[in-house]
Amino acid sequence: MNRARFRIHALAATELDALAQIHAACFAEAWDADALATLLAMPGAFALLARDEDNGVLLGFVMIRGAADEAEIITLGVDPARRRQGLGRALLAAGLSEAAARGSVRLFLEVAADNSAALALYRAAGFSEIGRRADYYHRANGKMTALVMGRAVTIADTIDGSAIRQIKN
Fold first, then answer.
1. Which member of 13, 14, 74, 144 has the greatest number of CB atoms within 10 A?
2. Is 137 among the residues known to form the active site?
3. How far is CA 81 from the centre of its chain?
4. Distance of CA 132 to the CA centre of its chain
5. What pLDDT, in 10s, does the model give residues 92-102?
6. 129 occurs within a structural domain
7. Catalytic: 136?
């Protein structure tokens, strides 16, 4: 399988519709551009996007919200056709870097207990389970527990000791 050539950059306001489209491709309960804009308008919120380096196609995203010295991954997704190419890992690393540069010392997230690919990604990145939220996710076939995961964020998580501006693979 060919690995994707991509770059990661901060979301521009003009990219909200594209972010909404890829969010819908990744999640059954998708957020539209207005909902994403509302989330990103919260203090401390930011989004990073991965785009194909050759054609500019949006491949994935991570949205994080920070408050004081903590941050939370709100959502992370990769185009289903482009998974298993290192994009999720790169987006997670970029999000960790930016959160660290913004002063976060701890990063949290919720993930569906049956999402084995995401669980493997987060565990490989040093996240561990710190709690559970029963019936957190609503699915067509019922409800699913969310695992609450967390990990420390250190200056070692920053890329070259500074905030992410652009990452190339």
1. 74
2. no
3. 17
4. 20
5. 999 999 999 89
6. no
7. no
State the total domains in the chain: 1
Which residue out of 72, 110, 129, 137 is catalytically annotated?
110
Residue 132 located in a structural domain: no
Residue 44 has pLDDT above 50, yes or no: yes
43: in domain: yes
Q: Determine the distance from the C-alpha atom of residue 84 to the mean position of all C-alpha atoms in its chain, rounded to a whole number.
A: 15
Beta bridge partners of 107: 71, 151
Q: What is the CATH classification number for the domain harbouring 82?
A: 3.40.630.30
Exposed e or buried b per residue across 25-60, where buried means at least 16 C-beta atoms within 10 angstroms of its C-beta: ebeeebbeeeebeeebeeebbbbbbbbbeeeeebbb
φ, ψ at 150 (rounded to 5°): -155, 165
Q: What is the pTM of this model?
A: 0.86
Q: Which of 15, 72, 98, 122 is catalytic?
A: 122
Domain that holds residue 37: 6-105+153-168
